[in-house]
Amino acid sequence: MDEGTLTHSMILDIKLPVAPLVNHRLARDMEEKQATALVPAEAVAWLQALRKGGRVIERIELCGPGDVLASAPITLACLELLQPEIRGAELSLTTLGLGGGEIAADLARLGVKTVNMLVDTVAVETAMKLYTWIRPGKKTVPLAKAAEILIRGQAEAVQTLQAVGIRVVIRTTLVPGVNDDEISVLAEKMAGLGAAAMEISGDGIIGMEELCALVSKLLPTTVYHPAPNLPPPGMPHSCAEISMPKPTRERPNVAVVSTNGMDVDMHLGQASQVLIYGPREDGLACLLKARQTPDSGGGSSRWQTMAKECLHDCFALLASHAGDAPRKEFAELGIQVILTEDNIEGLVDVLYGGGKKKKCKK
What we know:
By secondary structure, the protein is of the alpha/beta class. Helix content is about 30%, strand content about 25%.
């Protein structure tokens, strides 16, 4: 199929949530459980699966649930693995910007074209109202000092990134009564540092288009509209055909960890056995057998042994939770770990293309 016959639904902008470490919390954010980040091997496997399904990837954005620069070693490792998968797609990062100057050259070398930097103020006093805490390094520091480090670090990052040829887009969220009267000052400073453009958003802000037109006299500015986010495979709410792994001749089965044999409700690290589901002779997917897992402990060797002895014929494993180590080991072997909590039979049916309509008759 050539590009002239591609449908819009086959052309995708992909966000890869690969950053596990958080370096700030906004005062307006609700306290909630942080989502699970993809390990680099899972991110690569997802892109490969999408392309095998006929999708064309136009843009690849590395992002949260944490911050890609707070998780810099992981981000760089992911970028290295992604090199064969970029294939002309525009590569970008979204980040608070802390530490950007230190790895700017590496980002440019690895093909990053754009950094979306989350800058909401250039005033320390305002930053102290916007953030509950900021962690510039490994240790938490008083908010006033952290705000100074943030503002200085963001300015340095803009200058360094644009100096190595990376386009910096300032992404600003306006909060009524806090920073909404500072946008012109912010735009002027960012333009002076070398930023290429600004995107603004904000609930309760009236006349955003007119505001953008005004600020555009200082720095090209548009209203920020987040693109629809396609949940990666193995993450909650990702049980769509476009996201899910598929059985192969070599790996036709699915492994499940469960306390009761009915629901996916168990942490992989606590499982003493895995339940193996797969197609019978009539094609219907059912429980085939149970396999004992290796004893706990042993680090990565335990997961290597599990992959060899328990999952050698499986293309996916269902668990409520799993650590980064087994997910990395399994992803590199072509086994997708799917984190979910639901009825086993329904989930297995989805993986084999049956929706939740077919029931397994023993």
